[in-house]
Task: inverse folding
């Protein structure tokens, strides 16, 4: 009998691969080792559970352990893979009972990423969160709500009840400090504001949401401020400070000190690849696993996907590390199919992402940053326009800010960002599709996009931006 | 001195060309002849003025005669071009004072289209409208509102006050008959329903919005019915019947007779090209003017754009006639640039369109119809899926119906349609962009589209449809 397809990590990439492999080859044995209790949870939904927009924490699970079992996946939670041996084709697994060796025919490394908290001291304090795990999410919401609701969260299956009850028992916080102005920071500002906290967001760079470019970042900051959030740009948090019970009581930053009783640190993530030490599986420059177009590593029968793996960027053609949900699902699914015997490329990434900041929608794709574009051999030019989201006479027409970046030599579109309150984020998909097909700005200007007064003006904001950028390119 | 650039028609295509030419070459004389009083009006906005969503009829004007004059355009309203002589490079123009010959260096035929009303007898009755002209729009709204508002409409500049007052003086209608279930029909159903009329829509085919495919048509019919509109499918209106004052009183159809005191006939349009008789300017099979990639006709220095002209279809590569607003603006603008000395292609069309039916948004692009696809040499296969517009756990997640059609030999995407209540129409732009870049279904399945719980699930409905269609193609 063939050894199983072994998957390290029971989240989006791992379970997508396991499910697809089982569907394509129902006789194949598939074993998934998950270090924790939770599997297949929607990290992007966490801020909305904290906010109260999503009622039940289990709504964030896209595949329950029971459903995985129904698909014939041998899912083993609380099993940590500590070592990979591609020569012997085995992994070393540790669980409550001890350690064992598991042989594999194919291996998928889908170990994800973890929130960075260093180098800020104090992140271990009670009241400080990184919001990367379900139990933290449960605990944070329990902290914000009344006792009855906290108890109902604590008693949900899979939830670490003791940890959650500890927060449920505390007085609700009044002032929130958010460290980092990326996705998590901006979404958490909205979540805390919904609970009427005094919200402070600290961001070391000079803008929010740096990957979305300056114009979108400015609109996001403006929106947060309109909702009463104090946005501290170019302000570095130096330490979280606790009281004698090790409860968070203040945030020290390079411009002063803020009394705060809850903090979320969202300053990025790093790939979980330490257990690959000694395996000769190559990592890329980002520290994530290097893979080919089928998600295969340099070692035979060892694949990697999701937040722990690099992918090829559609614009640069080079490996890049952009840990996002669709990428994990798509690459996992492709690898599951490949392992089942029908080779399927994992596809490129364009770094397409969207985020909501209160009523503001932002989307981004490709390469906006000029330094990165230069590094990739382009000569970047950008333009930003603000145009209407609907016909000017139609109610609800909203100012939509579009930034497009192109290579001045070839006219090829490299990146784009959109911010606005009316269907702004979803318009980025048009730009992403154009980028992945190596469209020039002139081609985009001539795209036959939909026009209907309630949804889009004659010249969609994307077309307006292309017109202006093309003018600049041709000057 | 060079003869002027002469434009026939003062709407989207004509004034886009005139404006662009003046901007690129400020010394160039540009003369625009417009048959009527109104210029540059947003036909797509008319139903929303009738509904009351748009307050002021002049909001529908995108360029006033005064603004055209400021751009240095010699705009002559109430000037009808009756003949074109490309050998002599002159047009014959008729106005109140008589007839004259106007020489041109370049000529743009942008004479638009007119609503079809034949072969239904009775469309000349008072109370029967085709809603193609501003005065009809003004009169129809005056018919629906109280006397004071009717008078305020009648007294607006450019409005035919006498015609509008005639309707303002009549009792408001109670039952509306809509003949035709295309854009105008569906939008007018919403408009009449807003005025609490008993609304009946008659459609000869077996579905609403045929260009949007069966699934979108069914959803539109369902939505109209939910709002109290009686939808009569496969029902042909045979005549509009008047009383002794020639006021509409009933609609006779092949399934009976409906008492109705207002009717809108929206059964399509035809290009205004009769004045080209004898000019040797070639028309295409559609009856619209045939042009090359620069919008030029077979005659030297004679261009055509907008609702009276064909364009090349991005999927078939062949000439097609799809009169839509963006096409007119884009082609007009390109021709204005070409005439100013900097040759610019008019671009292809993909037949991308969007329409709102109450809260339902529909978008379509490319070739969905299998017979048309066969005619163009493809072997079409379609799939329709219904998928969520947001993450399942996020409030407002709405069922989004996507139809994709591809060529089974090459896997190339040929067309798509989307219907749903949450950002559905705008998602068609992704499909349109893919189609214009000749993407295959497999490429679409691997597109890196934006994922954020409030706007889009991990797998956008377009990706879900591509996955399913690819499965079918590979079976």
Result:
């Amino acid at each position: 009998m063939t050894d199983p397809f072994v998957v390290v990590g029971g989240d989006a990439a791992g379970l997508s691969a396991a499910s697809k492999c089982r569907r394509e080859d129902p006789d194949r044995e598939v074993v998934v080792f998950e270090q924790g209790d939770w599997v297949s949870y929607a990290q992007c939904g966490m801020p909305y559970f904290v906010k109260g927009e999503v009622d039940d924490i289990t709504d964030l699970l896209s595949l329950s352990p029971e459903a995985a079992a129904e698909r014939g996946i041998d899912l083993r939670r609380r099993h940590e893979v500590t070592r990979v041996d591609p020569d012997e084709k085995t992994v070393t697994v540790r669980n409550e009972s001890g350690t064992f060796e598991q042989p594999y025919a194919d291996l998928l490394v889908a170990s994800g990423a973890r929130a960075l908290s260093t180098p800020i001291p104090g992140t271990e304090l009670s009241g400080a969160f990184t919001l990367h795990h379900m139990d933290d999410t449960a605990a944070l919401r329990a902290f914000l709500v009344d006792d009855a609701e906290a108890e109902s969260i604590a008693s949900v299956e899979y939830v670490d009840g003791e940890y959650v009850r500890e927060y449920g028992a505390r007085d609700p916080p009044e002032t929130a400090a958010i460290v980092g102005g990326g996705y998590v920071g901006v979404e958490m500002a909205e979540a805390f504001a919904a609970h009427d906290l005094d919200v402070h967001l600290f961001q070391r760079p000079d803008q929010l949401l740096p990957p979305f470019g300056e114009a979108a970042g400015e609109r996001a900051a403006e929106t947060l401020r309109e909702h009463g959030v104090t946005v501290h740009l170019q302000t570095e948090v130096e330490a979280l400070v606790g009281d004698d019970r090790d409860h968070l009581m203040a945030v020290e930053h390079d411009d002063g000190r803020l009394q705060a009783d809850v903090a979320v640190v969202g300053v990025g993530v790093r790939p979980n690849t330490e257990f690959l030490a000694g395996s000769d599986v190559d990592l890329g420059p980002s520290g994530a696993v290097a893979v080919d177009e089928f998600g295969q590593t340099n070692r035979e029968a060892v694949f990697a996907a999701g937040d722990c793996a690099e992918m090829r960027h559609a614009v640069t053609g080079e490996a890049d590390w952009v840990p996002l949900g669709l990428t994990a699902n798509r690459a996992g699914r492709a690898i599951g199919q490949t392992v089942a015997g029908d080779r399927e490329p994992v596809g490129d990434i364009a770094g397409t992402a969207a985020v909501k900041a209160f009523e503001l929608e932002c989307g981004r794709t490709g390469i906006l940053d000029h330094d990165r574009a230069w590094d990739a051999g382009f000569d970047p030019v950008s333009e930003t326009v603000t145009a209407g989201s609907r016909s000017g006479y139609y109610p609800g027409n909203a100012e939509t800010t579009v930034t497009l970046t192109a290579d001045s030599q070839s006219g090829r579109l490299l990146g784009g960002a959109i911010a606005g309150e009316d269907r702004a984020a979803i318009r980025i998909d048009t730009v992403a599709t154009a980028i992945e097909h190596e469209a020039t700005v002139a081609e985009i200007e001539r795209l036959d996009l939909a026009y209907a007064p309630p949804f889009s003006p004659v010249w969609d904001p994307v077309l307006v931006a292309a017109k202006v950028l093309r003018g600049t390119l041709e000057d």
DSSP finds 13 helices and 25 strands in chain A.
